[in-house]
């Protein structure tokens, strides 16, 4: 047993218990805390809100004569976003305008005049002026991709009105304009399909990288801009408000044209990027407003046909939202006729949007890539013919007077 005890330690000393005095315990506790503290410091990089200039929305323009980049930073005023103080109304955002030789230089120029650290991690929206978009867009997208703190889910928009007016406009109800635009996209994408949530920077990059043209919502200003906080004491919400109408088409690295507002929902439907469509159709019972509750899209390219055929299959569950019938009750034949009227309307509008894209040389649906994957010449994408097959059914609303009765299904195809 003594063989296990080092030679410089007496056996009697090895058998004694070690006694911790209060001083020893204190020293041991302090040493343990000091050793663990660097590992447990979860807030070592914490920054106070009042030290940051939180950017809700940014915009990019350029001066044609000098070639200088023009940037706008819309910074949130946290005190005004919360409940108004007794001292009165305050502006919820402040807009700073800076100029620089490059996009990266804009941030350095902003640091010269902002009394707080620029904090771009909270971007909600980015707006590009039409003249800047028609010059090129890839430099801006590439700049965002190279940032370590980037948010590739930021919504991208194009402004056709003067950017200075758009960026200094105060929006009612939702007081942060960048967030207001983002919510408009979310609402319209689920309500009528006129917009899609795939207008984020990452989505635009994916489309352009595969040779497909991208469509970005256009933001417009209704009337003259209202820049005074007194607008929050007025009930006229339309005066000087921002709204989204139409789409800017980007092919390659620049904006090449616009897509009308009425065409946007059918473009998104053919792309499979919406589950909602709204339309007014003419049936035997008169003019009927319908909306798709569940729109399912399937498509495939028959590249070996002559000419190639792009087959798109739509299955729609219709909800009648507005009706001016010539008779009080709808029969099975009436419902079937509404379905057929919608199928005709959908086929006509989808074909019109497709023909427009081919006529203008806009590959809005990625047909170049589809042709390449099928082993065909991508340059022949414009020879592809569209065939739309549509299946429709009317949903029973249930408790309305003169109930529609059983669901009526109809199948039809466009030639």
From TrEMBL:
GO terms for cellular component: membrane. Its main location: membrane. It is found in: Membrane. It is a lipid-anchor. The keyword Lipoprotein applies. Residues 45-220 form the Spore germination protein N-terminal domain. InterPro entries: GerAC_N, Spore_GerAC-like, Spore_GerAC-like_C. Residues 246-372 form the Spore germination GerAC-like C-terminal domain. One of its GO terms (biological process) is spore germination. Keywords: Germination, Lipoprotein, Membrane, Palmitate, Signal. Belongs to the GerABKC lipoprotein family. This is Uncharacterized protein. The lineage of its organism: Bacteria, Bacillati, Bacillota, Bacilli, Bacillales.
């Amino acid at each position: 047993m003594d063989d296990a005890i080092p030679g410089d330690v007496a056996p009697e000393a090895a058998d004694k218990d070690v006694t911790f005095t209060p001083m020893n315990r204190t020293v041991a506790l302090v040493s343990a805390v000091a050793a663990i503290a660097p590992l447990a410091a979860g807030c070592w990089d914490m920054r106070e809100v009042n030290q940051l200039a939180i950017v809700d929305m940014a915009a990019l323009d350029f001066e044609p004569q000098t070639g200088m980049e023009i940037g706008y930073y819309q910074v949130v005023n946290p005190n005004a976003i919360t409940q108004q103080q007794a001292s009165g109304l305050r502006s919820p955002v402040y807009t700073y305008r800076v100029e620089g030789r490059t996009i990266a230089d804009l941030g350095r120029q902003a640091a010269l005049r902002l009394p707080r650290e620029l904090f771009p991690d909270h971007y909600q929206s980015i707006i590009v002026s039409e003249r800047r978009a028609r010059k090129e867009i890839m430099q801006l997208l590439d700049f965002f991709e190279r940032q370590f703190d980037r948010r590739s889910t930021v919504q991208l928009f194009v402004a056709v009105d003067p950017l200075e007016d758009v960026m200094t406009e105060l929006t009612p109800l939702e007081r942060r304009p960048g967030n207001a635009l983002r919510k408009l996209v979310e609402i319209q994408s689920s309500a009528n399909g006129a917009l899609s949530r795939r207008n984020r920077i990452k989505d635009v990059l994916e489309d352009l990288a595969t040779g497909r043209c991208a469509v970005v919502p256009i933001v417009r200003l209704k009337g003259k801009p209202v820049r005074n906080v007194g607008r929050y004491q007025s009930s006229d919400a339309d005066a000087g408000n921002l709204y989204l109408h139409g789409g800017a088409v980007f092919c390659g690295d620049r904006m090449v044209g616009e897509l009308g507002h009425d065409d946007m929902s059918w473009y998104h439907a053919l792309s499979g990027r919406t589950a909602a469509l709204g339309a007014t159709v003419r049936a035997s019972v008169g003019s009927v407003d319908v909306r798709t509750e569940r729109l399912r899209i399937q498509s495939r390219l028959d590249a070996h046909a002559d000419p190639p055929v792009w087959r798109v299959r739509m299955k729609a569950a219709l909800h009648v939202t507005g009706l001016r019938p010539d008779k009080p009750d709808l029969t099975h034949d009436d419902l079937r006729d509404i379905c057929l009227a919608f199928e005709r309307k959908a086929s006509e509008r989808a074909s019109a949007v497709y023909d427009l894209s081919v006529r203008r040389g806009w590959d809005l649906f990625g047909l170049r890539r589809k042709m390449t994957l099928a082993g065909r010449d991508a340059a022949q994408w414009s020879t592809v013919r569209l065939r739309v097959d549509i299946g429709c059914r009317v949903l029973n609303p249930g408790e309305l007077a003169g109930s529609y009765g059983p669901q009526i299904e109809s199948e039809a195809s466009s030639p």
